[in-house]
Write a structure and sequence with these properties.
2 helices, mainly alpha, globular
């Protein structure tokens, strides 16, 4: 992986004044795609 600054979903939610749930909904709908997903983190 390149040396990029990646943001956690909560950080992105705060930056854009959205809820984490909204971001997850947009991802599920195909509107957003995360650059990287940590497979070790279980929600």
């Amino acid at each position: 992986m390149e040396d990029k600054k990646l943001f956690q979903i909560g950080e992105v939610a705060k930056m854009f004044q959205l809820s984490v749930g909204s971001l997850r909904h947009y991802e599920k709908a195909g509107l957003l795609k995360p650059e990287y997903t940590d497979k070790e983190v279980i929600l």
